[in-house]
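Researcher: Here's a chain I'd like modeled. Treat it as a single chain, no partners, no ligands.
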Amino acid sequence: MNKCCQARDSLRAQACQTQGRMAEKLIFEYSQKGRKAHTLPDAPPVSFGLPERKGLRLPEVSEVDVTRHYTKLSQQNYGVDSGFYPLGSCTMKYNPKINEQIAACEEFAEMNPYEPERFAAGLLKILYAAEQMLCQTFGYARFTLQPAAGAHGEFTGLLIIRAYHLDRGDTQRVKILVPDAAHGTNPASCALAGFQIVTIRSLPDGGVDLNDLKKHLDNTVAGLMLTNPNTLGLFEKNILPIAELVHNAGGLLYYDGANANATLGLARPADMGFDVCHLNLHKTFATPHGGGGPGSGPVGVTTALAPYLPRPLIDFQNGKYYLNNDRPKSIGKVHSFYGNVGVILRAYAYLKIQGSAGLKRASELAVLNANYVKARLQKVYNIPYPQICQHEFVISVKEWKKQYGVSAADIAKRLMDYGYHPPTIYFPLIVPECLMIEPTETESKETLDAFCDAMLKIATEVKTNPELVKSAPHSTIIGRLDEVKAVKEPDLNYFAGA
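Model: Modeled as a single isolated chain. Structure tokens:
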């Protein structure tokens, strides 16, 4: 590495250390006795009959202290509004602000969940319309909008599968087949729903091993969970034979819709043979979901499975939209009220604005962007599955780990020095030292090129100055943590005067 680059990184590190000292302060540490932001007029004392509490310490700060403190904190946050977010399998696309404006309308935001149906007719109409658009886009008879997130949708779909088999008196179907490239929530949801998990191997080309699948198909199998395209970013070319095999064995096919951003308007899971499907409105339909929320995981089903959907469903009859609780085979409620309505409203706006043609174009661009980034990076990085990908692809730096001691985590941390949020790492588990990149359709060629340039520079650093990469990040507010200590001994409390 040349002296100019070394000097640049040194200056970055020094600047970051200075920022870090400023950012380390909590609001309590700005406190000065007697300092106030506002003075309120004296008010007569009010007694609530509660015991007097003493010793409550609140920070004594000026208005400018408060403003600057929280402004600094906001500037340290990273999101899709501030930069590129190539988080594989999470589809962190930009959220159009009109979606936010619609969800924030006081007619929606201030509506009480206990509002009588006759006063909520407008909202029920919108939710019903959102369900109908999802049915048209994905090919299902009905959707429930109740589940609060993708994993919650998985759990709901699996309960529907269980209810279907039990309703037919088929009590021996206790197993769910899950490919080894599945999302980690799949086996967890199966276990939570009371099923046994059977792992199905993947082939060297990334698809499901049909021979291994056939070995496990018997009258104890309730269904197969599958993501298509899968977590390698590859479309399952044998999806129709897989669906036929599972159905002939008496099982159902479950579609994990986390990767639906690759197939909108191009392929429908119902047409592939999937009986149950969950979607991630917060991924595919552009609601920001950083920081653990908010989310929405609607579940769609075929006509045969519709009776088992959670109650209530929104129905329309005699010119009236209403919540239909008259569903004797329903698995029951899975969410208080009718799901995360704010997220559903954002998705409704996105669907209405895009229309069928816009959704298809979004997926086409997502696939194009992923293949463009892959084509640029595969000149230097190892792409274990080099075929045309869908919306995402994976890199493996296993050989670099052996040769230079640089891991996938090291590269991810170094990427932060270049101003980018790292991609997903160490997933899927079947790819060692893995980085999983999903650019989405909302990023420009200039953004993608700048990201690729940074990745290619890091590749050069790995070979010429691996210690620089192994000690990254150097330009962030907080440098490299002791990850084991951070997990085993998290220090999340602040004690005044400590």
